[in-house]
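User: Teach me something about this protein's shape.
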Amino acid sequence: MASILPLVQSQPSRALRAGERLISEGDFSGEIYVLEHGRLLVERNGITIARIEEPGALIGEMSVLLGTDHTADVTAESAATVRVIEDAIGFLERTPLVALHVATLACARLDATSALLVELRKQAAERHEEQGVFGRILQALTNPPPPAPPRRGPRVTQLLHE
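Assistant: First, the predicted structure itself:
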């Protein structure tokens, strides 16, 4: 898929210094960020889960789409610049190409994650004690718990129930 950067050039940019926090776990901003350059570190519960350095990478979209607090800290590992999409739900409603990009990315991440979990489960097939863990993970992917009440405005809630 083509880069999302040309589609968000009209959005304000934010410069980050190395070590500066972009997103804090447990906060809610309603914003999506698009990396222009630099490197970001993603940590969940103190565990590094990703390094983001690809221009055009999305940050914060899960919180916006699910209407929940951020589930990870995102910190600039080097000097970085991001485009800030404020009122991200409104922006996605007005720009279907960006919304399609976000949806495609989310599906690609889910596909990669489930493929990895299936491979890990195959490798652990002989170790009975690990089957319970992988079973729970696969169950969570295929039957996620009901979402928490969204922190979105009435317009989004109405659209979701139409």
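Now, about its shape. Helices lie at 61-66, 88-94, 96-123, 128-142, 154-161. The chain is about 40% helix and 20% strand. If you'd like, I can walk through any region in more detail.
User: That's plenty for now, thanks!
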